[in-house]
Amino acid sequence: NPLQGAQFVLAAHRISQLPSDHGAEVAFAGRSNAGKSSALNTLTAHRGLARTSKTPGRTQQMVAFSLPPLIQGEGQPPLQARLIDLPGYGYAKVPEALREHWKLEIDAYLHQRRSLRGVVLIADIRHPLKDFDRMMLEFCFATHLPCHLLLTKADKLSRNQAAQALAALRKELAASGTQATAQVFSSQAPTGVEEARDMVMTLLNT
Ligand code: GTP
Ligand code: MG
């Protein structure tokens, strides 16, 4: 597993507190309770790395995890690699002021972060894409930022239903013109873990 050895670095309330903007970074975004933190734990094979919860709104900061450095070509120094767990958006019980703060910070992060190589967008396979998901897809497309969609909690559906949900989603992505890729995923089953790890590594090496 190329994502093994991930370590907690820090939790940031604003982007200025994040690790210095060098190396390569992949951010995990998605609606509150979609399963972002669980996906991070599954992909890094590190139970308890990112805090998860039944209660939406668990992750209230941008949380940075370091990965083993990426080996580059002859004569080039290894590249720092990180994963970032973003706060979930769309959770109504989080106070309006905090939601607004996160909207601005996530927006600034996506616009300004030079080490950001791509976004892993996490969505519940049982729910259609919501406004926030669409905004993220459109933003990534407009700024040429690669985006990979994990349709998670696939364990809640039959294999057939999951395949149908993926096909419908891919159709929608194609129709909307966004270049995002998508796969079925489950942190619980687990399902699609190798494919997702490969994609994260591809993004980091982009
Ligand atoms: P916030 O930090 O609040 O934005 O949520 P999050 O997106 O980080 O979600 P988290 O990983 O904390 O998971 C939310 C809930 O969904 C928890 O109860 C998890 O156990 C559950 N969950 C996450 N992934 C899966 C999955 O693949 N299958 C099932 N059945 N449950 C899952
Ligand atoms: Mg979380």
Structure description:
Its cofactor is Mg(2+). Necessary for normal cell division and for the maintenance of normal septation. Residues 22-206 form the EngB-type G domain. InterPro entries: G_ENGB_dom (IPR030393), GTP-bd (IPR006073), GTP-bd_ribosome_bio_YsxC (IPR019987), P-loop_NTPase (IPR027417). With 206 residues, the protein is an alpha/beta fold. It has one domain (7-204): P-loop containing nucleotide triphosphate hydrolases (Rossmann fold). It is 33% helix and 23% strand. The protein is built from five helices and seven strands. It has helices at residues 36-44, 96-112, 131-142, 159-176, 193-204, and strands at 7-12, 24-30, 62-70, 79-85, 116-124, 147-152, 181-184. The longest helix is centred in the C-terminal third of the chain and has 18 residues, at 159-176. The radius of gyration is 16 Å and the shape is globular. The two termini are 19 Å apart. Magnesium ion binds at residues 36-37, 58-59, 85.
